[in-house]
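Quick one:
INPUT:
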C-alpha cells in the first residue's frame, strides 16, 4: 500500500527525503499529478519508466523551482526567455538544447540532445522543488497509455504499491497537461497542445509550426496516436447517443442514460479541468450499466478546446500495443 502524505510542511519534508533517497513520489501540479524522481539519478529515473511501463524512448519533463534553475540545465533562446517570462510558473513546457554539463541523467531525456523543462505553478510542487534542491523528472502519474491523473485517488488506481508515496493536494485546477513547445529547431513548434492555449503563445512569439518535424526521428513520443485512452471505445463529435453508449456531454446534454457533463455552461476551462476525471468515471460506471462505449459531444476547437479535442482524439484511437 502506498502511503498518502498531506500537503503540509511535514508531508513535503517527508516527500523530499524519499526523493533524495532515489524513491518515486507522485506529486500535485496545477495540470495533472506527476510521478516524480530525482532527475540526476539514473536509478531513480529508471524506476519511473518501470513503474509506468513507459517505453524508454519517450523522454520525461524536468521540473524546476524557477527559470534561473532551469537555465543552468538548458540553453535559453530569446524566444524561450520571452515565453518563460510570460507563462512561468505555469502549464508550459519548453524543449531546449541541454547545457554541456547538464546533470540530468541521459535516460530522463531518452538520450536526446534536448531537454523538456517546466516551472510548475502549484504551491506544493514549488515548495517540494525548493526542499529538494535537485530537478524532478515527472511524467504524468498514470500507467503508460492510460488517462492522466487529476486526483490522488486516480494515481493510486494506477500505481498503488508501485511507488513510495503520493502527496495529496486535492484535484488539479487545470486538468490537462502542459503545452509543449519545441524551441530547439529553426522554427518554434507546438508538440502538444495543453493548459496554455496556442493562440496565447503565438501572441508572444509569432506562428508555431504544428506536429513533429517532417522526416525527423524520434518524434515527440507524446504525439503517438493512442494515448490517454479509457478502456471503452470513444466515439467523437456525437450528435446522438446509441442504446449501449454513455455520454460525455458539453453544454446542453443529448438524451442519454449515463451522462458526465464536462461543462453544462459550455465553459472550456471547466471542461478541461473535468475531462480526465470524466473519462475515468464513465469508464468505470459504463460497464455495470451494461454499456459498451462512450459517445462524446463536440467541443469547440478554440483556446483550451484545441487541447481537449487533441486528448479526445487520442483517447479514441486504437491501442498501440506497448
Ligand atoms: O503537465 C505536464 O506536462 C505533466 C506534469 C506532471 O508536469 N507532465 C506530463 O509529462 O504530462 P508526460 O511525460 O506525460 O508528457 C511529456 C511530453 C511527452 O509527450 C514527451 O514525449 C514530451 O513531453 N517530451 C519530453 N521531453 C521531450 C524532448 N526532449 N523532446 C520532445 N518531446 C519531449
Ligand atoms: Mg503522460
Amino acid at each position: 500500500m502506498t502511503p498518502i502524505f498531506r500537503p503540509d510542511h511535514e508531508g513535503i519534508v517527508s516527500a523530499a527525503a524519499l526523493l533524495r533517497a532515489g524513491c518515486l513520489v507522485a506529486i500535485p501540479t496545477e495540470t495533472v499529478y506527476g510521478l516524480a524522481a530525482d532527475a540526476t539519478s539514473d536509478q531513480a529515473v529508471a524506476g519511473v519508466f518501470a513503474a509506468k511501463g513507459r517505453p524508454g524512448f519517450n523522454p520525461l519533463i524536468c521540473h524546476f523551482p524557477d527559470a534561473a534553475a532551469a537555465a543552468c540545465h538548458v540553453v535559453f533562446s530569446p524566444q524561450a526567455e520571452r515565453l518563460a517570462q510570460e507563462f512561468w510558473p505555469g502549464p508550459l513546457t519548453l524543449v531546449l538544447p541541454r547545457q554541456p554539463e547538464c546533470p540530468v541523467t541521459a535516460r530522463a531525456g531518452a538520450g536526446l540532445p534536448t531537454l523538456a523543462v517546466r516551472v510548475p505553478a502549484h504551491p506544493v510542487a514549488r515548495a517540494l522543488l525548493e526542499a529538494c534542491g535537485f530537478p524532478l523528472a515527472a511524467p504524468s502519474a498514470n500507467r503508460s497509455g492510460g488517462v492522466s491523473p487529476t486526483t490522488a485517488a486516480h494515481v493510486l488506481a494506477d500505481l498503488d504499491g508501485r511507488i513510495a508515496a503520493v502527496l495529496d493536494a486535492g484535484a488539479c485546477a487545470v486538468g490537462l497537461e502542459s503545452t509543449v513547445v519545441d524551441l530547439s529547431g529553426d522554427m518554434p513548434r507546438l508538440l502538444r497542445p495543453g493548459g496554455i492555449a496556442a493562440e496565447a503563445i503565438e501572441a508572444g512569439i509569432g506562428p508555431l509550426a504544428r506536429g513533429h518535424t517532417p522526416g525527423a526521428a524520434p518524434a515527440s513520443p507524446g504525439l503517438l496516436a493512442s494515448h490517454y485512452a479509457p478502456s471503452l471505445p470513444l466515439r467523437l463529435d456525437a450528435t446522438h447517443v446509441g442504446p449501449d453508449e454513455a455520454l460525455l456531454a458539453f453544454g446542453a446534454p443529448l438524451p442519454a442514460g449515463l451522462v458526465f457533463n464536462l461543462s453544462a455552461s459550455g465553459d472550456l476551462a471547466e471542461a478541461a479541468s473535468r475531462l480526465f476525471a470524466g473519462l475515468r468515471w464513465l469508464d468505470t460506471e459504463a460497464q455495470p450499466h451494461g454499456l459498451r462505449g462512450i459517445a462524446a459531444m463536440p467541443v469547440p476547437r478554440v483556446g483550451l478546446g484545441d487541447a481537449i479535442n487533441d486528448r479526445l482524439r487520442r483517447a479514441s484511437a486504437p491501442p498501440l500495443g506497448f
